[in-house]
Amino acid sequence: MLSKNEIKFIQSLQLKKHRTESGCFVAEGNKLVHDLLPYLHCVKLIATKEWLANEKTVVADVITEADKDEIRKASNLPSPQDVLAVFRQPSYPFSAQSIQNKLTLALDCIQDPGNLGTIVRLADWFGIENIICSEDTADIYNPKTIQATMGAIARVKAHYINVAEWPSLFDGLPVYGTFLDGDNFYNTNLTQSGVIVMGNEGKGIRPSLEEIINHRLYIPNFPEGNTTSESLNVAIATAIVCAEFRRRF
């Protein structure tokens, strides 16, 4: 049975300040929790009797059996499932060497948690191990972000680094960015490793970062020159760019 204090603690993790103070985050749903358990430290797991009977190798500091009504009280989902878990936020060491000879994503002020989660999922699909986030990018442990990653958060490392440090961090690397006045992406030479910078949903890449981008790319519409939507959603643009990089190499 869930206590009122346990429910209060779980609900408090909807807010970033409480996630930061506790060093924890919430994941909900049968598949998501199942996918995260082998990789991350589970502090607290709350599940129905039926779910626990099917998951015989669950490892968590505290395991609580609860019915669906109790899970619903703690849940942030419109339709809670059979399990909810609190995980410890992992800590990943980072240095400039971490992104050498690899393809890396750098996110400049991505504000929508759903977009961020989708990009993490894309990175996982395309074998990108590290994502560098500006400090004003949405919190990777926001519940909406966690849900959108569909478990990819267990394998992709997110590093929040002040953009003032990016020039020295990316020095000597191919740095790509998408712009409306860039060169046709499909006619541009790409490299197997480097950094792909994706900008804010409304403002794009901030001016202070443009000077460190040495490959300005444009994703053309089809047919080229036709009147179409003004721009692509940042997660969709990320998918197109990553797919082309991986197609070439």
Short recap of the structure:
This protein is of the alpha/beta class and 249 residues long.
**Count of beta strands:** 10
Report low-confidence residues grouped into runs of 5 or more.
none
Helix percent band = 25-40%
Q: How confident is the prediction overall: mean pLDDT?
A: 95
Rounded to the nearest angstrom, the radius of gyration is 20 Å
Shape descriptor reads elongated
- CATH architecture annotation name of the largest domain: 3-Layer(aba) Sandwich
Q: For the largest beta sheet, what order do the strands appear in spatially? A: 7-6-5-9-8-10
Number of helices: 10
Supply database-style keywords.
6-stranded parallel beta sheet, 4-stranded mixed beta sheet, 10 strands, Alpha/beta knot, 2 domains, 21% strand, 60s Ribosomal Protein L30, Chain: A, 249 residues, alpha/beta
Q: Strands, helices and their partners?
A:
Blueprint: H1 4-12, H2 16-22, E1 24-28, H3 30-36, E2 42-47, H4 49-54, E3 62-65, H5 68-74, E4 83-88, E5 103-107, H6 113-125, E6 130-133, H7 143-149, E7 157-160, H8 166-169, E8 175-184, E9 194-198, H9 207-210, E10 215-218, H10 234-248
Parallel strand pairs: 2-3, 5-6, 5-9, 6-7, 8-9, 8-10
Antiparallel strand pairs: 1-4, 2-4
Helix pairs in contact: 6-7, 6-10
Task: Describe the protein in words.
The chain has 249 residues and is an alpha/beta fold. The protein folds into 2 domains: 4-88, 2-Layer Sandwich (60s Ribosomal Protein L30, Chain: A); 99-248, 3-Layer(aba) Sandwich (Alpha/beta knot). The protein is built from 10 helices and 10 strands. The strands form 2 sheets. It has a 6-stranded parallel beta sheet, covered by helices on one side. The protein has a 4-stranded mixed beta sheet with strand order 1-4-2-3. Strand 2, helix 4 and strand 3 (62-65) form a beta-alpha-beta unit. It is elongated.
